[in-house]
Amino acid sequence: MLYHIYELNHAFISPLREMVGLNKRLIQSQYNPFPNTWASKNMLAACDLFESVTRRYGKPDWRISETEIKGQAVPVEIKRIWQKSFCNLLHFKRDVEVLDSVDPKAANDPKVLLVAPMSGHHATLLRQTVEAFLPDHDVYVTDWIDAREISVRVGRFDLNDYIDYLIDMLEFLGGGVNVVGICQPGPPILAAVSILSAHPCDFLPASMIFMGSPIDTRLSPTIPNEVAKERSYEWFKNNMIYTVPWPNRGVGRRVYPGFLQLGGFITMNQDKHIDAHSNYFDHLVEGDCDSVQKHREFYDEYLAVLDLTEEFYLQTIHDIFQEHLLPRNAFYHRDELVRPENVTQVRLMTVEGERDDISGVGQTQAAHDLCSGIPSDWRVDYVQPNVGHYGVFSGKRFRTEIQPEIRKFIRGISQK
Is the pLDDT of residue 192 over 80? Predict the structure, then answer.
């Protein structure tokens, strides 16, 4: 019922949005004799603010068409190279001819598979991450598909299917890939590599790099971790799962709606978001175009959300956040016990933010204790001072401090 109310609310607001849009066009009209008055500027800002907080945000574009290598622009083409019902694998392919003329050695740059979080936002949330890796790496990204856009006839998708997808992608890309898990993918990546390491395999990744991942949420628990423990599994099943309504393609599918996840994100920092929109209004009135554009770019991404399948969400809540099966050595993938200690030929790096309020310090580091078979000189543990969760994979400190450390780690592997 909640999902239906959500859709009806959008339908109800549509006429109001049309009226506000008309009012906005009238104020901006060349026939308005008083366009620069205090009243006109405030009315125009109010119309813009109303539009921004009531519209439905679709999946953003990547907006990546080139990268810079040695001071020269190199065109980038985004190609879908692998596809299954719930995910596309994208290759950010740098132009071979231009690349060869700029730096002939770049053709042998290490492969990096960025596994985007399947936790409410689209993979485009990693735009800055991709941009930072592109100059020195051959970049691939998992592009998870919104569950409300997938017909129920396709079938289910749970955490075990997620792990199978990762294994299939690693096989498709071949051995020697550096797989980077950002937040949520940490546990399934570790499970996938552990399963592969337990059997003869010629496509093991060169390294696992976990960034702000909930490997063991018993350590430095944050508010989301505590909420997951305080509520029972049945509570999540009864209160967080809804049926996708018509006219979405996934009508009838049971999902954890993205708008609920977004509501949780906003509630955690409610004052911050209120201040941001208040400042946005002021900047509109003042005509501060740079600040207005930065606000729009951030919220166009932040407010664009996707739904997760019921089975994936509930299994993740139970196995990762409530029962901690992976760090307790009790996690099974299709009847096979996942043993991280079997990982001996894959290097490991963990990256955490000192102020991370989603995956606390220590939760990602736990991978080192679990992967006891990896030699100590094949491991790196890095904690970035003064950054929160999103600062681990985006922003200035990521570009100038974190990514160079990851680059050094990956390049060190490539040179051995």
Answer: yes
Cis peptide before 35 (omega within 30 of 0): no
Going by pLDDT thresholds of 50, 70 and 90, the confidence category of residue 39 is confident
- More confident call, 14 vs 114: 114
What is the longest distance spanned by two Cα atoms in the chain?
77
SS3 sequence, the chain? CHHHHHHHHHHHHHHHHHHHHHHHHHHHCCCCCCCCCHHHHHHHHHHHHHHHHHCCCCCCCCCCCEEEECCEEEEEEEEEEEEECCEEEEEEEECHHHHHHHCHHHHHCCEEEEECCCCCECHHHHHHHHHHHHHHCEEEEEEECCHHHCCHHHCCCCHHHHHHHHHHHHHHHCCCCEEEEECCCHHHHHHHHHHHHCCCCCCCCCEEEEECCCCCCCCCCCHHHHHHHHCCHHHHHHHCCEECCCCCCCCCCEEECHHHHHHHHHHHCHHHHHHHHHHHHHHHHHCCHHHHHHHHHHHHHHCCECCEEHHHHHHHHHHHHHCCCCCCCCCEECCEECCHHHCCCCEEEEEEECCCCCCCCCCCCHHHHHCCCCCHHHEEEEEECCCCCHHHCCCHHHHHHHHHHHHHHHHHHHCC
Q: Please list, residue by residue across 23-57, b when 16 or more beta carbons sit within 10 angstroms of its beta carbon and e when fewer do.
A: ebeebeeeeeeeeeeeebbebbbbbbbbebeeeeb
Confidence (pLDDT) at 56: 77
The closest of 252, 316, 228, 327 to 3, measured between CA atoms, is 252
- Which range (189-203, 276-290, 374-388) has the least confidence? 276-290
pLDDT at 416 over 70: no
The pTM of the full predicted model, rounded to 2 decimals, is: 0.90
